[in-house]
Design a protein that fits this description.
single chain; globular; Beta_cellobiohydrolase_sf; alpha/beta; TIM Barrel
Length: 319
Amino acid sequence: MTRTRRTFSRIATAAVAVTACALATAQPAAADPLSDTNGFYVNTASNPATWVAAHPTDARAAAIRTQIAEQPIAAWFTTGSTGSQVASYVGKAASHGQLPVLVAYNIPGRDACGGQSGGGAGSVAAYKTWISTFAAAIADRPAVVVIEPDALGDFDCMSDAQIQDRLGMLTYATQMLKAKAPDTWAYLDAGNAGWTDAATMAGRLKGAGIANVRGFAVNVSNYYSTSASTTYANGVNSALGGGSHFVIDTSRNGNGKLAGEWCNPAGRKLGTRPQEGGGGDMLLWVKTPGNSDGQCGIAPDVPAGTFSPDLATRLINGT
């Protein structure tokens, strides 16, 4: 090889090395919405906040405001929620440098076993359009998303065909959030400590695309203690092979679970306020404290999702 060729070879090799180094440096860091924000976003338009604003002289208003309405509670998006509404909510949080928590709750045939919160998108195609729009509306802003509460626990009330459709929709949801919301930590709902055994739930999570997202959520809208929920979540994670992450809903678990009761039971209490850590990635208030589980228990006349100041006060006092 001539000197000219050797010189050119060295230059080319050096150029490739520099280019490779530059490309490596340019690669985006792994998403970490907790590090990218300063605390959780408080939804000033939540049901408790709206009720307090409308009833300033009610004797219950002060406690509901400080103990519930001023705390960071997840915002639920469902049938009728538009991409612009999602974008607006996430944008408000971003403008404060804070982390919003959202719930995607629009799977067709939702709450198949409970029967109190039925509804959802009208078809598989409609759901895919909706969840794609939902993910795109979050875009590259930091967020936490809980995907479809109860969706993987309801299988006993569904046909094989319905189960396969649901797994396909959930997988699509994880793919959309991964592709369109890169700074989001998304968690597939994994039921609660008393519903589906850990190994079975792990199999369902795998079939629903958990490899595409951060991990899974437990105890959403339920009452199991943080300790019981952590034990269950660790069992699910072990059955998954380890390496997954989880969050726990502590909104109403301060007094733990009342045996045999899930729908507006008496004697429950607010749990630990939202925070980073606490056993998993985060403890969150996913269910809105004071929102009814359905027309049952101590709120037989309050439809699911409707705020009740009586339920809220009971949770504050543990009665």
